[in-house]
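Example 3.
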Amino acid sequence: MSETSVADLKLIIFQLKGKEYAIPVSDVRSIEKVQHITRVPSSSHFVKGVINLRGVVTPIIDLRSRFGIEEEVYSDSTRVIIVALENMDVGLIVDAANDVIDVQTEAIEPQPEVVGTEEANYISGVVKVGKRLMILLDLEMVLNPEEVKATQGIEG
Amino acid sequence: MEMSQYLEVFIEESKEHLQNCNERLLDLEKNPSDLSIVNDIFRSAHTLKGMSATMGYEDLASLTHQMENVLDAIRNQKISVTPEILDVVFEATDDLEAMVFSIADGGDGKRDVSSVVEKLKLIEKGESPAVSQGVKEVAATIAPDTPRVLKGEYDEFECTVLQQSMEQGFQTYEITISLREDCLLKAARVFMVFEVIEKLGEVIKSTPSVDQLEEEQFDQEFTVTIVSKEPMSDIQGKVMKVSEVDRVDIQPLSIEQLRPNTEAAVESIKQEVVIAEEVKMEEPAQDEQKKQTSVKQASNKTIRVNIERLDILMNLFEELVIDRGRLEQISRDLNNSELHETVERMSRISGDLQNIILNMRMVPVETVFNRFPRMVRQLARDLGKKINLEIVGAETELDRTVIDEIGDPLVHLIRNALDHGVETPEVRRAKGKSEEGTVILKAFHSGNHVFIELSDDGAGINRDRVLSKALKNGIISEQTAATLTDKQVYELIFASGFSTAEKISDVSGRGVGLDVVKNTIESLGGTVSIDSKEGEGSVFSVQLPLTLSIISVMLVEIQKEKYAIPLSSIIETAIVKKEDILNAHNQKVIDFRGKVVPLLFLKDIFEVPVFEEEDEFYSVIIVRKGDKMAGLVVDSFIGQQEVVLKSLGNYLTNVFAISGATILGDGQVALIVDCNALIK
């Protein structure tokens, strides 16, 4: 119990091409298995479509293509993490999601400043727990509705 | 005490009471001598006063109190109803409404009402400066001439009952019971008195009515008329045994007393006031009406439910439907007759359930219509016109979401009809019409739509004036002007920046009204059209979908994807041979019943991944937007279905040519095609 009391942040860990990423539990609604996705025409390339999430039509984003990683056929371990941001629910497709950890805010370090940081403005920090290194995502920037709308505008 | 939790209830109920006041005041204006209406208003005002005092809105309470005093005086025939008095009461109601709305908007409900209060006070004293001398005389003559020998007044029905019982040897008594002044539980005492009396004979009538007695809406005294075979002294003795009863007066009634009473009253009024006589004759009919409305009210018991909860219920139900679909599939596969039977039964029940849930969202248009009589009255006065508003089909039901949106467009249309449609009394007389213009607001169901028609018998639309105005404002060109049909010309008044009224008035006529109306109605998935005959009036017809949440669609397949096309925009479906497709300047077209219709390949528009080659036939859905048509090419038709309309969420907004999504029986999402976006 003493361990949890000092922990400041609960994170959900998921994998993308062998790397580990983290998002705060408080933003996550649920984790689902992949189900039938209905493609939505003329939307951004990383928007895979919409699913029926218990009666609510929920848009789905493939994080691999959002981050510019080559896409892969969905397997048994592929998961959809439903995140709630402001007034919208969005599903994120990830390779696997199987861990929840507690970290202290001190354990979160800023993203190392290297070339190409501009590209990765959706990273809000790096978490180091033992030998594991996890990338903490800024969901707002990942979804970035303005960018989505902008690309839509061009296509439409 | 923490009041905020009651605030919502208070606001809702206050609005209802004020609405009731408004409606009944309008009734009263038509039948100034029907005191039962005054009673109704009084009750509403009284409740309002109590509520607002409890909630600490002093201004509201004091104004209602003043209004109540005037109503009380009218009720007790101390003053008679005149249009001037009604105007002041209407004004007071307006103020009350403003205060309630200010409270609803988070204000403190304070408002300067001293002038209205002053006017009400004057009326109460019978000194209303606005009341003319003549009217006052009439008031004076009615009061003393109505014989008040009997405490109660009996209508025809009650008289007949009394007469019949007398003929059968019963005695009729009028018992006046006074309770002690320090009596605390008046209603309880009344109940006990009634229990005693009901053992002795049959109660024919009580003044005030039993309802009012139960709510303690009387001072110390009430009167009961009974038929009984018991002697007078026995009744008196038994009633006196109820504790806290101060005095019991019994008066036997005879047939003679019953008759001359009403006759004498009619006689005296005949001589003095002509108006009153007319009203007297109308009274039986009104009683009838009153009974009907009271029956209707009794059957309309309701509770308030937040619409959000209904949405949740609907969502849960949809999930149930999806699981039902799966269950049906499983039962077919297993081929077990018992399971089959159970599943079939469940399907039927859930079908019924679906109807009920959908119906719960339906609200009668009455909720929108009921504010119009008041508005029309005010407008007619402002404009100096005489207008009779008739409302037909107020019970027609519409989805709640549509109801919320339809109010403002209708207000615009009514204002328009009153301002530009109906002429002033002088003009009407000159044209040989009756001075009073009639505006009919009619709502009815037809198929999957609700129609709301607003017709007036006014001047109608002048084609030349509309055309010249449209030319002047640059809405159309000279060449097109000549070719337009009458109907197309009338449609022009919906164009933005158009105003046909020669002089701009406060009521309508800045040219912003009607195009807003058209836009709002079209955004609801409806249409609006006009028909008019010059000199005879116009009809504005609004067509609305029954509900916004459920629509009929045609499900189609494009390669492996399913799309839904709203039935409302489909004209028909066709199978077209490849060689029948013509090329008109890079655009594939077909000849559809003599018309050239462009073809749109949804496969290309929606960038559907292609798996199989197309065959030599095209499945085409002919859709329309206004007068324009287009043929949507799909791979196959699945069929017609009722679906629940869902939004794509806040993340995906403005997807081209997609208006929303729906969840199909197998749990998959299908997108709904927005045909309006496909046709330019």
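The longest strand of chain A covers residues 9-16. Chain A has one domain: 2-155.
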